[in-house]
Amino acid sequence: MTTDDDLDYIHSNKNNKTTGKMSLLTESGTVEYDDTLKQIKTRGNTTFYNPKKPYQIKLSQSASLLGMGEARTWILLANAYDESAIRNKLVYDLSKRAGLLYTPNGNWVDLYINGEYRGNYLVSEKVEMAKNRVDIANLEKANEKANPDTDLSTLPAFGSM
After folding, report:
1. Are strands 31-42 and 17-25 parallel, antiparallel or unpaired?
2. Please, are residues 54 and 82 in contact by the beta-carbon 8 Å criterion?
3. What whole-number distance in Å separates Cα of residue 98 and Cα of residue 77?
4. Going by C-beta distance under 8 Å and a sequence separation of 6 or more, which residues neighbour residue 15?
């Protein structure tokens, strides 16, 4: 990946975002993705404060990365608290084998940003409502559509009366 802003800017605040370009090559050298990134940002609560930062990226268009189904938003897990870098991948794979619905896929990648090797990461599906992710109805949008003349934010929350 290359970023349009300095990496120090992205790392200085979790809300800082930039754009860039990404090329993803498979282990056999096949180009899997080579296009612009609409967004690159850091993520995580405690993991944000580690030297090895986790990232969220948004592709310029939906793409299937490493056979994980088409989507625009992807997560790069740093596995900062796991020296083996295997725990997340192992749990994802075991969950899939157990038949648990909506378990994210993940594959290891060696990440280079602006020409610098950043380490081994797990590129993973973001848990979100979408056809190739968590395929459920967006009840918030359905509620707004069913109540077009109501400002739902003014209504009391259930159990608050």
Report:
1. antiparallel
2. no
3. 23
4. 41
Distance CA 81, CA 154 (A): 42
Question: Nearest-CA neighbor of 13 among 39, 41, 36?
Answer: 41
The two structure tokens encoding residue 161: 């009366």
Q: Reading across the β-sheet that carries 17-25, which strands appear in turn? A: 2-3, 17-25, 31-42, 55-64, 70-77, 116-125, 106-113
Locus of tokens 């918030």: 140
The pLDDT of residue 138 is: 72
pTM of the model: 0.80
State which amino acid sits at residue 110: D
pLDDT in tens, 70-98: 899 999 999 989 989 899 999 999 988 99
Residue 22 in tokens: 């990404």
Residues 42 and 64 sit within 8 Å (Cβ to Cβ): no
**Count of all residues that appear for the chain in the document:** 161
Scanning the structure block, which residue is given the tokens 């280079």?
112
